[in-house]
Amino acid sequence: MTETPALHPLWPAPLADGAVHATVTVPGSKSVTNRALVLAALAAEPGWVRRPLRSRDSQLMSDALRALGVGIEETVSSSSSAGAGAGGEAWRIIPAALHGPATVDVGNAGTVMRFLPPVATLAAGDIRFDGDPRSYERPLGEVINALRALGARIDDDGRGALPMTVHGGGALEGGTVEIDASNSSQFVSALLLSAPRFNQGVEVRHTGATLPSMPHIRMTVEMLRAAGAQVDTPEAGGEKNVWRVAPSALLGRDMVVEPDLSNAQPFLAAALITGGTVTIPDWPHRTTQPGDELRRIFTEMGGSCELTDAGLVFTGTGAIHGIDVDLGEVGELTPGIAAVAALADSPSTLRGVAHLRLHETDRLAALTKEINELGGDVTETADGLHIRPRKLHGGVFHTYDDHRMATAGAVIGLAVKGVEIENVATTAKTLPDFPKMWTDMLAGAEAGAGA
Ligand SMILES: O=C(O)C1=C[C@@H](OP(=O)(O)O)[C@@H](O)[C@H](O)C1
Ligand SMILES: C=C(OP(=O)(O)O)C(=O)O
């Protein structure tokens, strides 16, 4: 977290004047969209990505793939062979021989900065990677070293971080590699996603003591398998912390992206806090997205929910309970849970998320500082936060270019008068329409993509 004075505009977070009752259509998952784009770009034939997320992170991913030679045509369709309800925006992905020279702007997107260097090793030519100042601080050395061990030529400035240049050789040998992914599951996902195209595939052996965000690794494995790859995992009777991907051609798929369940979080929190009801259409009955855990976590914090034909119907009573929970598998939910916990009737302990210090900002420091500046009582622990609810007051809630800080501030602002969110536009990373969706939700209107 670097100190950010309020240089950006302030957005007065609306106070809820009663129970929220709304249906909120949440746009596509960032994690699914960016994996789908990579896998489609590496496929042996064209494919479709339907209902993709259109946001800064997915735009950075598609711009980068285009710069490497991939065709991405954005169309709007009214129906599809992919199944009921699959109309709307659809991107046609046309794979091509990848080439440089090219420059990839990763912004502050972990998925772009980790998933694309392995893709760049398959391109013929130099691929320069650069991004936002924060991208220079986010860990990448494990991916750089792993790719070098698998045969890649990469020039960085010796820090094992961005900016850097991948000297793509048009192919990568691949093989066995050890990696410490305790700082980010994305290191493992990155190596697995491109591995069907490595000459020998890959065997990734995680050597670190902990491994965060396992659902995101499962998402990688499931999407690889759906694209025709052969993947061995620890879960399927394999060795602990070892994943293998065999070399093979990937299929061009026609797939529909699920709503982003982590981005449903502030809207569910609104129902929980105000004692209202929020319905999220198209909530999947089975998913690898970590946001699905919100059903359990927000129920324990005082709400109740039901998965119906209309989607997930989440109801609050207005009572909010503290929680003691390990969020290691679902780290990206932490800011939103911390916001709710600050309004609860008992203390909370959020554990297992030391790696959040390396996210868009140092989220543990940022949450502590911003909630405390509104009168809260939050302390950082070695791997999380202790949150003792106190009566909060209004003030500026800084966001440090972190979309989830902005939505967390908005959640607090529902219950605390006079909260102003600095740079709410940072939500464009994964949810560009957030301010309108939020005010529509409060007005009881249909909120969401296309609303
Ligand atoms: O693979 C992915 O799509 C993601 C993995 C997780 O990263 P970390 O393992 O670095 O937490 C998650 O927090 C991030 O929002 C998205
Ligand atoms: C950690 C996150 O993003 P990234 O993909 O940039 O790592 C997040 O969205 O919470």
Helix content: 25-40%
Q: Which CATH architecture of the largest domain?
A: Alpha-beta prism
Structural class: alpha/beta
What is the assigned CATH homologous superfamily of the largest domain?
Answer: Enolpyruvate transferase domain
Overall body shape:
globular
Individual helix count: 12
Bound small-molecule species: shikimate-3-phosphate, phosphoenolpyruvate
Distance from first to last alpha carbon: 35 Å
CATH topology of the largest domain: UDP-n-acetylglucosamine1-carboxyvinyl-transferase, Chain
Compute the number of structural domains.
Answer: 2
Largest sheet, order of strands side by side?
A: 16-17-15-2-24
Rg from alpha-carbon coordinates: 21 Å
Short summary of the structure?
This protein is α/β, with parallel strands linked by helices and 451 residues long.
Features:
single chain, 451 residues, alpha/beta, UDP-n-acetylglucosamine1-carboxyvinyl-transferase, Chain, 2 domains, 5-stranded mixed β-sheet, binds shikimate-3-phosphate, EPSP_synthase, transferase
Could you give the topology of this structure?
Layout lengths: L9 E3 L8 E5 L4 H12 L5 E4 L5 H12 L3 E7 L10 E7 L7 E4 L4 H11 L3 E7 L10 H9 L4 E3 L7 E6 L5 E5 L6 H9 L7 E5 L7 H13 L4 E2 L9 E4 L8 E3 L8 H10 L2 E4 L13 H7 L3 E5 L2 E5 L8 E3 L7 H8 L6 E4 L11 H11 L3 E4 L4 E4 L6 E3 L5 H13 L3 E4 L11 H10 L3 E2 L3
Parallel strand pairs: 2-15, 2-24, 3-14, 6-7, 10-11, 18-19, 22-23
Antiparallel strand pairs: 1-23, 3-5, 4-5, 7-9, 8-9, 11-13, 12-13, 15-17, 16-17, 19-21, 20-21
Helix pairs in contact: 1-2, 1-3, 1-6, 3-5, 4-5, 5-6, 7-11, 9-11
This protein binds shikimate-3-phosphate (S3P) and phosphoenolpyruvate (PEP).
Phosphoenolpyruvate binds next to helix 3.
